[in-house]
Amino acid sequence: MNAIELARQCADRMLAHDEATRALGIEIAIPAPGHAIARVEVTAAMINGFGVCHGGYLFTLADTAFAFACNAYGRVTMAAGASIDFLRPVQAGDRLEASARELHRGRSQGIYDVIVRDQDGRTVALFRGRAQATERPLPGDPESAQK
């Protein structure tokens, strides 16, 4: 299996067990290993008391793209830290895309940047995540089921 096939298989296995991503209607695309795109439409339920999208939803979208980018190699990899900068408000009905890219991947740690853009291509948030890989295979790994 080549690297992009493995990355997409890992994403499929993750998504099968990811209730939060599915419940929020987040769509996932894997263009390359270490690169993931998460898309969502902002609903009225995501709007805070100031009439804009709650920052927690923006963080969740970016964190989701980060998670799918860093879990492209067959081992469970978790966030060890993350930060986000909110650059512009987001409204109900906006269509967001979070694009995560691997900047560095070592034996056990990685650094990923995520740019969140709206439907007009405007950057609404910037996210950086630090990942820590484990030795555990991803859920649904056929080899781990045989052990």
Short description:
The chain is of the alpha+beta class and 147 residues long.
What is the domain tally?
1
Amino-to-carboxy terminus distance: 21 Å
> How much helix is in the residues?
25-40%
Strand order of the largest sheet: 1-2-4-5-6-3
Radius of gyration: 15 Å
Low-confidence stretches: none
The helix tally amounts to: 4
Structural class: alpha+beta
The dominant shape is globular
What is the number of strand segments? 6
The main β sheet shows up as: 6 strands, antiparallel
**SSE string, helix = H, strand = E?**
HHEEHEEEEH
What fold name stands as the CATH topology? Thiol Ester Dehydrase, Chain A
Strand content: 35-45%
Highest CATH level, the class: Alpha Beta
On the 0-100 scale, what is the average pLDDT?
94
CATH superfamily: Hotdog Thioesterase
CATH architecture: Roll
Report on this model:
With 147 residues, this protein is an alpha+beta fold. It has a single domain (3-145), classed as Roll (Thiol Ester Dehydrase, Chain A). The protein has 4 helices and 6 strands, in the order H-H-E-E-H-E-E-E-E-H. The longest helix has 16 residues, at 55-70. The model has no long low-confidence stretch (mean pLDDT 94).
Q: What is the element layout, followed by pairings?
A:
Layout (H helix, E strand, L loop, with lengths): L2 H15 L1 H5 L3 E6 L2 E7 L13 H16 L4 E12 L8 E11 L3 E9 L5 E15 L4 H4 L2
Antiparallel strand pairs: 1-2, 2-4, 3-6, 4-5, 5-6
Features:
147 residues, alpha+beta, Thiol Ester Dehydrase, Chain A, 4 helices
